[in-house]
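Sharing in case it's useful to others searching the archive later.

Someone asked me privately for the predicted structure of Short-chain dehydrogenase protein, so I'm posting the question and my answer publicly. Question first, with the sequence:
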Amino acid sequence: MGIENLGYVRLQVTDPKAWADFAVDVLGFGIAEHDDGNGSKYLRMDDAPFRYIVEQGSEDKFLAGGLQLSSAEAYAALVEKLQGAGIQVETGSEEEATRRAVTAFSSCYDPSGNLVEFYYGRHDGSPFTPNHNIKAFITGEMGLGHLVIPAPENEATEEFYTSLFGFGISDDLTLPPPVEGAPNQRVLFLHADNPRHHTLGLYNFPSPTGLIHLMIEVGSIDEVGYCMDRVKKAGLHIFSDLGRHSNDEMVSFYFFAPGGMGLEYGYDGKQIADWSQYTPTKTTSGDYWGHEYDFPQIGE
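And my answer, the predicted structure tokens:
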């Protein structure tokens, strides 16, 4: 397949320090000793050098996800494949690669306008223990979690990630329209070359932050519950209460981080040992139970 996992994400926020403090105090992340001279904060979840790059900007928005390839050969083959399909690929500078703690990376845009970065050769990190007595985040070979992005150009974006990047389909979820008169909602869940049920999700509506949500996985329901308490204490809006999804079986809740970007915090996500024996599913209900949504009204 080629794509191993989601190795890092880049966020732009108006106050990187405040966002980093939130990540430590609420999520249980750590702050890496990594300084790019631009005021960015680099956040750790595990023994990788960092997983989140939080950059200074004039507005809060999602910038890009970094997809890890297995080798220099796989990386070069993907560049060639994209260019052969007429996709404009930008190769990052050595300085920018160092900032991402990778050997080399390139970037391009998908048909819905999302910036995607891909790389090989992640630099070694050092041992890391999460805060708040979290034993460990579920990362490793499966990457930092999963990412769901807006994909209004839905079919073209599906083709981009499946045919060019080699993602496989895990589940095709159809839900009723978000508002009367709109089309049905569709979330296409895509897996990479690791056991996590999905690494990438494509939602067929836009989002003002450029993000639907990022998922953070821990190892127990108690760790999820303690985080819920920290979220409430911080005064952050929980827009979906505790529930279990029907496709990846994750038990989780959702809330808005500072700046309005959606985060899912959960445990017990399904893992697939052998994708060659897996049959993609089509579902019409997102949950076995729970996950009652409470989106704030405009202006709140």
